[in-house]
Design brief:
Layout lengths: L1 H14 L36 E5 L4 E6 L3 E6 L2 E7 L5 E10 L6 H6 L1 H4 L8 E10 L2 E9 L6 E10 L2 E10 L3 H14 L1 E2 L14 E5 L7 E5 L3 E8 L5 E8 L6 E4 L7 E2 L3 H5 L7 E2 L7 E3 L5 H5 L1
C-alpha cells in the first residue's frame, strides 16, 4: 500500500493533482442524471476556501468542494463529486476510481471509461488520446457524452505503475466547461484520505514526541515519532538569530519545515538610503553584527524564485 501511494503521488506531480489512493471495490455509482437525490454530505468545521464546504466520509475520505455540490462514495476510496442542476441532474462531475489491478495499458482504461462507470459516462467518446508519460504510464484523453440529450465534455486520465493505478475524470456541460474546468481541478487537487473511519475524531495521526533545540535549548516543539529532525536556533551574530526545524519522514517522501536559516534579516529600501547608495539587493550594516539585506516585500512565489 505504501508503494502504491508513492506511485500515485508521482502522478500528481505530472498532472498537478494531489492524490492518495486505496484499493478499489466493485461498487457502482447511482445515477446522478435522474431525479434521485443522494444523501446530504456531512460537514465539519475545517479551514476551507471561501464559498466551499467539506465532505468527510468513509475510510477517512475528505473532499473539499464548492457549496451546492454533492459527493457520492463508491467504496474503496472511489467517489464522484457533482453539481446538481435545476432539474436535479448533474451539470458537472469529478470522478476518482483507485484501481488495485490494471490489466493492459493505461490508455485502455481511459478508452473503457464507459464500461467502468456506465452510469456516469454513458456511451462516452474518447478523443485525442495521448501518453503524458511512459514511466509511469499516464494516459490522457478528451471525452464527450450526452446523458438525456445534454452535451458534456471533459478530460479523463489514467495513471498506472506496475499493476496498480487510478482513473480520474472531470466533465461538465459544454456551455459551462470553460469556467467549470478550474473548479473541478481544484477539487481533485484538494481531496485526501485522513486514515479515519469517517466518524468524528477517528482520523489517525502519528504519535508526537517532544524535540528540544539542540544548539541553544531556546525552544521545543512536538514532532512525529520516528521522523528525522534537524535544526535549532541558528545564531549568526549577537542580534541575528534564526530558528529552524526540519523534519523528514522515515521514507524520505515528506519534508516539513518551520523557519529557514538561509533567509537573512531584511530592511525596506528608503529614498534616503538610496541617495547614499544603499539600493535594493545590497547589504545595510557592514559591521556584521546588524547586517540586513535591503529588499522590498514580494509575493511568496516571487521571493522563492
Amino acid at each position: 500500500m505504501t508503494a502504491f501511494r508513492k506511485s500515485l503521488r508521482n502522478a500528481a506531480i505530472l498532472i498537478s493533482v494531489s492524490i492518495f489512493a486505496i484499493p478499489t471495490s466493485n461498487a457502482v455509482p447511482q445515477s446522478i442524471y435522474g431525479k434521485e437525490k443522494p444523501a446530504p454530505a456531512r460537514q465539519v468545521r475545517f479551514e476551507i476556501p471561501q464559498g466551499w464546504t467539506i465532505h468527510r466520509g468513509q475510510s477517512g475520505l475528505v473532499v473539499f468542494h464548492p457549496q451546492g455540490w454533492k459527493v457520492q462514495e463508491q467504496g474503496g476510496g472511489a467517489f464522484v463529486a457533482f453539481r446538481p442542476g435545476a432539474g436535479g441532474g448533474a451539470t458537472a462531475i469529478v470522478y476518482v476510481q483507485p484501481m488495485e489491478k490494471i490489466e493492459g495499458k493505461s490508455s485502455g482504461v481511459v478508452q473503457g471509461l464507459d464500461r467502468i462507470a456506465p452510469q456516469l459516462f454513458p456511451e462516452v467518446k474518447v478523443m485525442g488520446l495521448r501518453m503524458a508519460s511512459t514511466k509511469p504510464e499516464v494516459a490522457v484523453g478528451e471525452i464527450s457524452f450526452s446523458p438525456r440529450g445534454q452535451a458534456f465534455q471533459g478530460i479523463a486520465m489514467c495513471f498506472k505503475q506496475d499493476l496498480k493505478g487510478a482513473l480520474y475524470a472531470i466533465a461538465s456541460t459544454r456551455s459551462t466547461y470553460p469556467q467549470d474546468e478550474p473548479v473541478m481541478k481544484q477539487i481533485l487537487s484538494r481531496f485526501f484520505y485522513s486514515g479515519g473511519s469517517g466518524q468524528e475524531g477517528s482520523a489517525s495521526a502519528p504519535t508526537m514526541v517532544p524535540w528540544r533545540d539542540p544548539l541553544e535549548g531556546a525552544f521545543s516543539c512536538p514532532v512525529p515519532q520516528g521522523w528525522k529532525v534537524d535544526g535549532g536556533m541558528k545564531r549568526f551574530s549577537a542580534l541575528d538569530t534564526r530558528p529552524e526545524v526540519l523534519t523528514i519522514s522515515p521514507d524520505s517522501q515528506v519534508l516539513v519545515r518551520i523557519g529557514d536559516s538561509f533567509i537573512p534579516p531584511m530592511t525596506l529600501p528608503t529614498q534616503l538610503g538610496m541617495s547614499m547608495g544603499f539600493h535594493e539587493g545590497r547589504w545595510y550594516g557592514a559591521d556584521g553584527v546588524n547586517k540586513q539585506l535591503i529588499m522590498r516585500y514580494l509575493p511568496s512565489t516571487s521571493f522563492l524564485t
